[in-house]
Amino acid sequence: MNIEKNLFPYFQPIIGAASGSIIGYEALARQCDSNGLIISAGEIFTSPDISTDQLISWDRKVRRLALQHFSQSKYNGYLSLNISASWVDLIVDFNYLPTVLMIDEFNIDRSRIIVEITESKGDLDKLVEIAAVYRRHGLKIAIDDFGAGFSQLERVIAIQPDIIKLDMQLFQNAARGGIASDIVHLISRLAKRTGCRIVCEGVETINDFHFGLSCGAQYMQGLLFSPAIAEFKPPLHYKNQIGILRKTFLAKTLVKEKQKIQFIANIKDLIELLKKTLETDFNLNKLAAHPFEKSGVLRFYLCNNQGEQISSNFNFSDKKWFEDTSQLGFNWAWRPYFYQLLALESVNDSYRLVTSERYRDFNTDMLCKTLSLRLDEERILLIDIAAEWL
Q1: pLDDT given at position 257
Q2: What φ, ψ does residue 370 adopt, rounded to 5°?
Q3: What is the 3-state secondary structure (H, E, C) of 240-253?
Q4: What is the torsional sign of CA 218, 30, 32, 230?
Q5: Neighbours of 250 (CB within 10 A)
Q6: CA–CA distance from 156 to each of 35, 142, 150, 175, 179 (Å)?
Q7: What residue spans of 73-216 are helical by DSSP H?
Q8: What is the DSSP letter of 111?
Q9: Distance linking the first and last C-alpha atoms of the chain
Q10: Tens digit of pLDDT for each residue in 52-97?
Q11: Which residue, 30, 37, 348, 377, has most beta carbons within 10 Å?
């Protein structure tokens, strides 16, 4: 079988979570197997038995066909093209870029083309240079498979892409919870700070879609909507499906939010009870009957106005308080939940409850938050609570 003649592009839609419309397509190489079925051509482009020059030639052929089809269609969204980072190293003259020449040949608006830099290989300095050249030509830059390699974070910092496409395996693992979920949320925060858009690849289930929304991802791509296909669909083809998915997300999230509100209300009641007790005496035994442990209160301690811990840690477990003196004298003034409270007091917004971000407690391995509030003029009360609901 003639491999070159058997290679052609298919297009997988990328869906806007807010609009419900198809905002773009990713061009993917496909081939026919011996039974005439359309399958991925990935095994060809990863084969060690085919020369790099030959692979680049075939890749450009597929890219050219994709751009030609794109130019002849009535679709007016984006087209995303994959370019191997390792192949970029082989470019000698940045004034002669085959992709840009093809775009101009088919009279395509350059702003509608996204270049996805794939793989974690490739010389970083050269990638930064080629990204700058593509941008000067009006193209947008995406980092593909973010999270698949350790060097990707360095690449994002250096290239400052317009789009980050999350690695499919990382995203699907994150949708099931655990540390992968925390990592994806951190990536989402990074994207917001740098002005990047997040695309979740590998969205195959309703739960995947809901998790993508919870991360703040603007775009979704995966088999929940469509595999790569030969022709472009109308922009609003998935609008009803997206609308239903957003409604189910809202319904599910409202249940969780109501549980969170009740959880916070219970915590606040117990904190007020603890605060009153500490204002009068240090007899905690009478508090043992209250549901501190059930409500997620793990421990409390006191600091002075300079952030120095002036009490033991009082840990609550098995309906009893246990004293731990190991951190007595530690200073926590550098923690945001401490200095933010002092800052609020400086502008007469005192007696607020300040909450830290979620973190994993070193001793218990639980997700926690620290709450801080003014106890009296000399003391600040800090309370660690379980944060599974928050």
Answers
A1: 86
A2: -110, 130
A3: HHHHHHHHHHHHHH
A4: positive
A5: 13
A6: 42, 9, 11, 23, 21
A7: 85-88, 98-105, 124-136, 152-159, 168-174, 179-194, 206-214
A8: G
A9: 58
A10: 889 888 999 999 999 999 999 989 999 999 988 777 777 777 788 8
A11: 30
Kindly state the DSSP code that residue 320 receives in the 8-state scheme.
E
pLDDT of amino acid 350: 57
Give the pLDDT score at 119: 63
Distance CA(138)–CA(202), nearest Å, equals 28
User: Nearest-CA neighbor of 70 among 123, 114, 120?
Assistant: 114
Which residues are within 8 A (CB) of 88 and not within 5 positions of it... i.e. 6 or more apart?
117, 122, 123, 126, 127, 130
> Please, what is the angle between helix 206-214 and helix 239-280, to 10°?
50
Which two three-digit tokens encode residue 218? 């603007």
Question: DSSP letters along 136-152, please?
Answer: HTT-EEEEEEETSSTTH
Provide the pLDDT for residue 240.
96
Domains in the chain: ranges and CATH: 4-237 (3.20.20.450), 260-386 (3.30.450.20)
pLDDT value for 287? 77
| Cα distance between residue 287 and residue 17, in whole Å | 48
Looking at residue 249, its pLDDT comes to: 93
Residue-level pLDDT at 187:
80
